[in-house]
Design a protein that fits this description.
The protein has 15 helices and three strands. With about 400 residues, the chain is mainly α.
């Protein structure tokens, strides 16, 4: 049995949320139906800290899956035969395992979307919702092509972020290694040298000796304390929604990084909502599906309130206008889309704007971070070198005098 977190609409039109155990997403829908609830969205409760958890599918493999399955469907092959052809065509082990399970589930009577929903670590709710819509509308190849394009953009952005992080990690690692070597090997020899010469080391060297002694005596306890604090913080965030909400709000207010995180979440939201709405998914159901992929609890809570406001009869732009986590640009574009009947185009425009803005913001962050990091690490290494070489120069000067 899997515990699902679900969102459903009751007979009075109100949104209901809760958790329910079921063997599959299909059984969950049946059980909710007996409770007079219409399922809108569901996701298994995540338990990432448990051993043996499901592994996610690398994004590039997911892109290849979408592209190859689109070609199979356009060629007119039965979907089970197509999945097996992909499985036997040199797919990586994880993807091959998934393809075998999906093909078996479809043979057992499930739809493609139902089979994908059984693997939430590999296929998120937007992916499954779009596939379900494509099946209903008979536009599955087109939907798969759109998914591939959206995933390519995410992959390009992730690659750019990795390139930006490579320089600070490399430089920081080199400086940290040099600092550890100086404090663990050079500092003790320098202290013995100054003591043997009967000299008092300068304050900078004394501070270095103090840090080196502390690290040498307490490094196991320091490592254990850092690891324990990290594990406790992660567990606290998982079991306390209020803490997660507070941390996510603070993330959006961080200098430099917060703006990028907010724009990235908004681009993900607008892109997913545009895809779902253009595919014919009702707006309330589309909002419920997109909510699971935003990745920030503060924005998710805002979408919850927007969804409830729409269910109460307010229009989309008015519902968004009451939430401070959505900037004026989003609200203006939604209002224009409603007035012109082109809501999907307006959402696509919002997504494009934030995608471009995220790229530019990341490039600006890189341009600022590299010299700032170089300066900071240079000052740190300079202080260590001064503390090491200063006493030596003093002793040499004293001998010369």
């Amino acid at each position: 049995m899997t515990v699902f977190r679900y969102r459903a609409v009751a007979a009075d039109g109100r949104m209901r949320r809760g958790r329910l155990a079921a063997a599959s997403a299909a059984e969950l829908e049946l059980r909710l139906g007996r409770m007079q609830l219409d399922l809108v969205a569901a996701a298994p409760v995540r338990t990432r800290w448990l051993p043996g958890r499901a592994r996610s599918l690398p994004r590039r493999e997911l892109i290849h899956f979408c592209g190859q399955l689109e070609q199979v469907l356009r060629a007119g092959l039965p979907i089970v035969d197509g999945l097996r052809a992909l499985r036997d065509g040199g797919a990586p082990p994880r993807l091959r395992e998934l393809l075998a399970g999906i093909a078996a589930a479809i043979e057992g009577g499930q739809s493609l979307s139902g089979a994908l929903a059984a693997h939430p670590a590999a296929f998120d709710s937007v992916f499954v919702g779009l596939v379900r819509t494509g099946e209903t509308a008979g536009r599955l190849p087109e939907i798969l092509a759109r998914l591939a394009e959206a995933l390519k953009w995410r992959d390009e952005l992730a690659a750019q972020a990795r390139r930006i992080a490579a320089y600070p990690l490399l430089v920081g690692g080199a400086v940290l290694a040099a600092a550890v070597f100086l404090m663990t090997h050079v500092a003790p020899q320098l202290r013995a040298f100054t003591a043997g010469m009967g000299q008092t080391p300068p304050p900078s060297a004394q501070a270095l000796f103090l840090v080196a002694d502390g690290l040498a005596a307490h490094w196991p306890a320091l490592l254990a304390a850092v690891a324990a604090a990290g594990a406790a913080a992660r567990l606290w965030l998982r079991v306390d929604p209020a803490a997660t909400r507070t941390v996510d709000r603070l993330k959006l207010r961080l200098p430099l990084v917060g703006d990028i995180l907010a724009k990235l979440a908004l681009a993900r939201f607008a892109g997913g909502l545009a895809l779902l709405y253009a595919a014919g998914v009702p707006i309330v159901e589309a909002l419920a599906t997109v909510r699971e992929t935003v990745g920030n609890r503060a924005i998710e809570d805002g979408l919850d309130r927007v969804e409830q406001a729409i269910a109460d009869g307010r229009c989309l732009s008015q519902a968004f206008a009451g939430e401070d986590v959505f900037p004026p640009l989003v609200i203006r574009m939604l209002r224009v889309g409603e007035d012109t009947g082109g809501l999907d185009r307006a959402l696509t425009g919002v997504c494009y704007f934030y995608e471009r803005d995220v790229r530019e913001a990341v490039e600006r962050a890189q341009a600022l971070a590299e010299p700032a990091l170089t300066l900071f690490l240079g000052l740190l290494l300079g202080w260590i070198m001064l503390a090491v070489l200063g006493p030596v120069y003093d002793l040499v000067g004293g001998i010369g005098a």
